Amino acid sequence: MLDIKLIREKPEEVKRNNKNRGYDEKLVDQVVELDKKWRRLKGEDDNLRAERNKVSKDISEAKKQGQDTNNILNRAKEIAEKLETNEKEERELKGKVDNLMALIPNMYTKDAPIGGEEKNKELLKWGKLLKIKNPKSHVELGEKLGILDIKRAVKLAGAGFYILQGQGARLQRALVQFMLDFHNKNGFTEINPPQLVNRKTAFGTGNLPKFEDQLYTTRDELVLIPTAEVPVTNIYADEVLKEKDLPKKFCSFTECFRTEAGKHAGEEGLFRLHQFEKVEMVYICKPEDSWKFLEEMTGNSEKILKALEIPYRKIVLATGDAGFSSAKTYDLEVWSPAMNRYLEVASCSNCTDFQARRMNTKYQAINNELKFVHTLNGSGLALPRLMISILENNQQADGSIKIPKVLWRYTGFTEIKPISVPLSGKQNKGKEIKLVYKEKTGKKKEKIKKAKKPKKK
């Protein structure tokens, strides 16, 4: 939430920010008008309270001197009745102002491109793109290797879900452990938070009320988190931290839940899911440190992609494409050979004091002054699209997948190869099946299994 002083003093600047970000400028005008009424009424009520105190003393003095107090008592009654009416209206006006302010986005950095997604600015590219004729998609690769099952996931839960099995599930688990280990070594405290939160918590990070339609809510009004940012950033809601204890750096692995209004053509498989996994980074810091931490956080995500040897690009989001709470956002996008385009795998944002005001999270400076903290969040990283890129960029001519070397000690295997399956019917009789695989040593091993005889009908 913005500081009301900013809206009072620079309404045109806030309106321009709303316009550039694709939000209604009239919201600002409405806040200004209602805030003027609230302040005028509050001033009147402050005067009435001062008069009430004076009348109270006058009544006490008149009684001491044995004077008639009827007129004074009548005035005290009038003041009390007027205050009761005014205070009710005052609360209603304040509520309307707060509700409207909750819909106004953060002030975006002035050096950002103005416009929608088409105005996002590419800052760099890293890695060599896979050169292969007719690259297979992650869905085709995963199904042929027996590590991905979309059809049965749809049977269980509907579109927007998937099943990873065998080496596919192990590969994703390896990625999670690798990324958590990376963040732990870089000074982050790992958090395992609730994955259901109350509405106040969702409000704190800016997910409510604006994005209610994007959240899953339980019958008792708890919200399934869309990202670990929501519970982790709110850990210190309504608290005052000490300056010496800042910054706080957290990492967290959770499931994430989003309604995702719909899919687009060519976005099948591990794309636009209702449930997915992600490792998140959250920073809570002093205002003067937040911009350097935005660069540090984004750099952490880039180091992970480089370690995995995945081609990616870094972009700065334009005003109309960035998140509601963000003051500046970098996106990292990984290359998909099958889709022939880059896919977002990380968003790293500085939210300045916007979320802190909504959460009421402050810190006590050395001079004892109370200030709002700054908060930042970033993907470190999101799993589904990371899996897409790993599978597609490491595909081999025979349909196998090479595992990035940095993951070998986590997976226990260096590649995923097609596995032979038993023959059916009479062809099965007396046949032997050879299962070939590689362990983390990189050496091939073989297992010989006797095929079962077909059952007689």
Structural class: alpha+beta
Q: Examine the coordinates and then state which fold CATH places here, giving the name of the CATH topology of the largest domain.
A: BirA Bifunctional Protein, domain 2
Q: Are there runs of 5+ residues with pLDDT below 50, and where? A: 262-266, 420-454
- Our count of domains comes out at 2
Strand order of the largest sheet: 1-10-11-12-15-9-8-4
**Count, helices:** 13
Distance separating the two termini? 72 Å
> In percent, how helical is the residue content?
25-40%
Summarize the biggest pleated sheet: 8 strands, mixed
So, the CATH homologous superfamily of the largest domain? Answer: Bira Bifunctional Protein, Domain 2
* Structural shape: elongated
| Average of pLDDT | 90
Name of the level-1 CATH class of the largest domain: Alpha Beta
Under the CATH scheme, the architecture of the largest domain is 2-Layer Sandwich
Please tell me how large the radius of gyration is. Answer: 30 Å
Number of distinct beta strands: 19
Oligomer: single chain
Strand coverage percent: 15-25%
Summarize the structure.
This protein has 457 residues and is α+β, with helices and mostly antiparallel strands. The chain has 13 helices and 19 strands. The chain has helices at 4-9, 11-21, 26-64, 70-101, 138-145, 150-157, 167-185, 199-204, 229-233, 290-307, 354-359, 383-393, 408-411, and strands spanning 121-126, 148-149, 163-164, 189-191, 196-197, 223-224, 240-242, 248-257, 275-285, 312-316, 328-336, 341-350, 362-364, 370-372, 374-382, 401-402, 415-416, 432-438, 444-450.
